[in-house]
Amino acid sequence: MSFKAPDSLAEQIAQHLSQRIIRGELKPCERIQEIKVTSELNVSRGSVREALLILQRRHLVTIPPRRGAMVAELTAHHVQALYALVKELYMLLAAEVAGTWQHDSELEVFVGIQRGLLQAAQEQDVQRFVENSFEILHAGLTFVDNPYLRDVVLNLLPAIQRTYFFSLARRQGEMHTFLDTYARLLQAIRQRDQATARHVMDEYAQHNCALVIAALNQ
Fold it and tell me: What pTM was computed for the model?
């Protein structure tokens, strides 16, 4: 049996704050008061500070000198810069999965995620849809023997989730657009068609970038 250490207290605090930022409960440029978080969660101030440093590395928080931590801005420039990188990561990951899977049973995890996405879309449950959609990345990373790709994707994941939730909460019909995209991606993967898998993810990343920017401009 393998040993898995539990998440540190700072990581747990970071996850809690991360979800509040992703869901929009903490707004861009809003101050994150260490004393308030310490009191609400009944944790030490040192653990909160460590959690904020984790969130800074994940691009959800900025910590200007002598001003305290605040939620990172979400602007068109930030979104374009993020998706310029995300597009390349998505394309690389999709091509790797399409080129490395061996047995049909390995793809069942993606089919299960597809069922969960469909149910969440039918129930108009944006939060569950976002959570399920990013399970695709976690599943895809298990096919990739590249620790650097894994680290970069996981580090950017909260920032990507934030933009995704922001746009879908305002245009829930886009959930069905994503379902269509995912169906095309799965077909390409089943056919081991790396070029099409890359093309699907290229189109998807560009579309989602434009969607987020349009939501920001509303």
Answer: 0.88
CB contact at 8 A, 182 and 94: no
Separation of alpha carbons 197 and 99, rounded Å? 10
Phi-psi region of 68 (alpha: psi -120 to 50; beta: other; left: phi over 0): left
The per-residue pLDDT for 172 is 86
Evaluated on CA atoms 64, 70, 75, 80, the torsion sign reads positive
Q: DSSP string covering 74-98, please?
A: --HHHHHHHHHHHHHHHHHHHHHHH
pLDDT recorded at residue 8: 87
Q: Which residue, 54, 104, 82, 97, is CA-closest to 163?
A: 82
By the 8 A CB rule, do 192 and 97 touch?
no
